[in-house]
Design goal:
By secondary structure, the chain is mainly α. It folds into 2 domains: 117 residues, Periplasmic binding protein-like II (D-Maltodextrin-Binding Protein, domain 2); 188 residues, Lysozyme. It contains 13 helices and 9 strands. The longest helix is centred in the C-terminal third of the chain and has 21 residues. The two termini are 36 Å apart.
Length: 337
């Protein structure tokens, strides 16, 4: 599959491919029983060049139907917009297979599927209270574990608790369609890298311990961010939206004369990575990002951390949250709790 980055085409979401054209192509490959490999191109010219070189079988994006004779247009067609998928002009067998497979109703089906995957409904969890006992300053049943493992992350334990609530609302059995598991919603692939056995993914202590190790690893990747307080936001954003996307936002901030080591400057470009003008910028290496979701994730955790600091005594590492003022979200995202 040759395609372009973007919400309608393809983007990476927590380690899984998303986008209308991607989901349609995935549906097609499942029908014919082959694996799907994605190659993201910069522009239409690269799409055509790579198709002609045999580096892909299908151009799976809304390609204008103005190159008849050079391509075979087939598969997902939008007659109103005059766009279609395409295959190499000699590959009539694949074109016929695509045309026999595609039904216009499939577009609405995969859009509905994607909307569900991006909603809170896709996460199976019980929503617990963010504070177990305000009078006694008890945040959760797992406070002793946050206190035990927060030093590995070099974080205030209440910050780790705030992140945990955002991830799972303190439900150790929480899981998502993407495979994220447990209190800290750790992906199986991440768990494997961290040495967390699959049969312990839902156990509170191993899950929190693994998350603390992962946070420590992310923190080490941001040692160029001099302020420990600022670095927290970079780490949180990476935990949620991916390290590479955060680096893309930093590159954009630098290009536009902002401070790439200050979260308020970088978060502006986290948000702009959902705008084609920015995610197609040459300094951006990893394409489209659902930046508003990651921005909201960081804001909510910072806000809840502030609340926890006022209700529960701290132990271990003490890091002031600084002057971060959480903003009200304008939309409801998967992490809106």
């Amino acid at each position: 599959m040759l395609t372009l980055t973007g919400p309608e085409n393809y983007y990476d979401y927590h380690g899984h491919g998303m986008g209308t054209q991607y989901l349609l192509c995935e549906k097609f490959t499942q029908t014919i029983g082959v694996a799907l490999r994605v190659e993201v191109c910069r522009d239409t010219t690269e799409l055509l060049q790579r198709l002609n070189r045999g580096e892909g079988d299908i151009i799976a994006c809304a390609l204008p139907m103005n190159k008849k004779g050079r391509l075979l247009y087939a598969g997902v067609v939008d007659k109103e917009k005059g766009t279609s998928w395409a295959v190499e002009r000699t590959n009539k067998e694949l074109a016929d297979t695509l045309n026999n497979w595609f039904k216009p109703s499939m577009v609405a089906q995969v859009k509905k599927q994607e909307n569900w995957m991006l909603s809170t409904a896709s996460i199976t969890r019980h929503v617990y209270s963010p504070m177990l006992d305000k009078g006694k300053g008890v945040i959760s049943n797992y406070d002793h574990l946050f206190q035990k493992y927060a030093p590995i992350a070099r974080w205030d334990w209440r910050l780790l608790a705030a992140q945990c609530y955002q991830e799972s609302t303190f439900d150790p059995k929480a899981h998502s369609w993407a495979g994220a598991c447990g209190l800290m919603q750790i992906m199986p692939s991440t768990a494997e890298r961290l040495g967390l056995p699959h049969d312990q993914l839902y156990e509170p202590e191993p899950n929190i311990a693994a998350a603390a190790r992962y946070i420590s690893q992310l923190d080490a990747k941001f040692q160029d961010v001099p302020s420990r307080v600022e670095r927290i936001s970079f780490v949180l954003a990476s935990y949620n939206g991916g390290y590479s996307h955060v680096r893309d936002a930093m590159a954009l901030a630098k290009k536009h004369g902002k401070d790439q080591y200050r979260w308020p400057d970088v978060s502006e470009f986290i948000l702009r990575l959902s705008d084609s003008k920015f995610y197609n910028d040459p300094v951006v290496k990893y394409g489209y990002m659902r930046g508003a979701e990651t921005y909201d994730y960081v804001q909510r955790i910072q806000g809840r951390w502030n609340e926890y600091r006022g209700m529960s005594r701290g132990t271990g590492f003490h890091i002031s949250p600084g002057t971060v003022t959480p903003q009200r979200a304008t939309k409801k995202y998967r992490y809106h709790v």
